[in-house]
TrEMBL record:
Native source species: Peribacillus saganii
Enzyme category, top tier: hydrolase
Keyword Hydrolase tagged: yes
InterPro entries: Adenine_deam_C, Amidohydro-rel, Metal-dep_hydrolase_composite, Metal_Hydrolase
MF terms in GO: adenine deaminase activity
Domain Amidohydrolase-related: 78-362
Protease recorded as keyword: no
Keywords: Hydrolase
Full protein name: adenine deaminase
Amino acid sequence: MLEQRYRWKNKHLREHIAVLDGLHAPHILLKNATYLNQVLRKWITANIWIYDDRIIYVGSNLPENIEGTEIIDCEKRFLVPGYIEPHSHPFQLYNPHTLSRYASHFGTTTLINDNMVLFLQPDKKKAFSLLREFRNLPVSMYWWCRFDAQTEIQREENVFSHTNVKTWLEHDAVLQGGELTGWPKLLDGDDMMLHWIQEAKRMRKQIEGHFPGASEKTLSKMMLLGADCDHEAMTGEEVMSRLMQGYAVSLRNSSIRPDLPKLLREIQELGIDQFDKFFYTTDGSPPAFYEEGFIDVLIKIAIEAGVPVIDAYNMATINIARYYNIEYLHGNIATGRVANINFLESPDNPTPVSVLAKGMWVKRNGIACEDTQKVDWKSFGFEPLVLDWEIDQDDLQFSMPFGIQMVNDVITKPYSVSTDMSYEELSFDHDECFFMMIDRNGKWRINTVLKGFATKLHGFASSYSSTGDIVLIGKKKSDMMAAFKRLKEIGGGIVLTENESPIYEMPLSLQGIMSDKPVELLIKEEKELKSLLQERGYSFSDPVYTLLFFSSTHLPYIRITPSGLYDVMNKKVLFPAIMR
């Protein structure tokens, strides 16, 4: 639990009152500020007093005491609340600290984060200590509580036990349950998941769905069971269907689903002109997707699509805060709110020139401020990955009668293997590769064939996956072993080899899943990885998501999971994992 249940202690609240009485000076005074007042739906000019991380006053008055106050004349600026990302997966090569810092430079100063990686950490005390550590960062972080692993893991009932889920749900920083990637189990009668939903409701917390392609009947059932919002609408009709059943709708624009322009066009064609139930989300895209910005890019898309300017900003701010019952802290510029404020050159350009986060400058006059906050990841159990086991030729036996064929970046289907896989190397004349997943503790493995990933890939190893297990792919077994060896040496990450020598490596020093490098550097590294893979026959656009979703059973049709090759549609393991 958080050591401090309330954001401000009594003594802080008394200090805030003392600022109004002139006994203390505000730390920052924003004079002549034209700001977006979302209650009146107007741009209004006022003076804004800030003390520590809080807005103390918004109005025409000036403070009596300005000793030591930083005074900024905002006459040529337009001020809006800090943007909110309501559906963040902060473990896509980057980590929560580096992602939040990067996002804040583009005005996104509140993130509501997936807790999957932290949930799977065996030491819950360290996980919750890390959440406390994140409170020291300028960006505001909140969390979800997952109810399922999004794949078939061994002893899932022990990992997602009632005690573990309830402990997370009760945490003050957790705002919602979900996302419900395991909703088919819920419909099939999983009463434990239903109980967790009921508990979340009792705590006045929201439930996030995950319902791609769901029928109106399914959406109705999930609403009856407790779902509140869904981010999987891919057409205007699907948006309308969700609205009709009472859902809030996150309009997604991500690396594999850049749907926002299409969604906005289609919902307006359907006559939808009220936007209070809409949010934006980038749905945890890989680093390179954020090269041009974050939620600010989505606001700009909305403005260009003809959404009224105030609604375009509200979908990134107050709509989300109201939905999560945190309007008293976030989503608007008003007395008592956290001082997250973006300074714009004009209302039609949502990328800020300056950013305040919790009353601290994270960007000023177009220049990012120095990051003085550090996270000691080792003290929270995130160290380089230690693989104290080996693989040998016996592990590299591929005799399965069918393999996995890639349909697109993330969808995989079964296919019959006709190629003789008994050789040490495969021909570059086709797009089939050896494919193996190995337990990160070396206890089991799954060997099959992957079609459609590459044609000229010698060896590839990755500890980045949705389960944290090791993925090996390649045409040459010797290069696959060389890639694995180098992966061990760098403490986890992604490695490509040719002629048994590394030609590319991306160290992921935090448990082999996340990097501690700034997002700006990861953008360059990810683009290089994509280029090298495409040169070797990868015909899709997003190798990071491909790696992440090999094991994800919320997508059809066949997945490689810790339990074995899994048929998603029929909900059964086709070939179990082999114990080593």
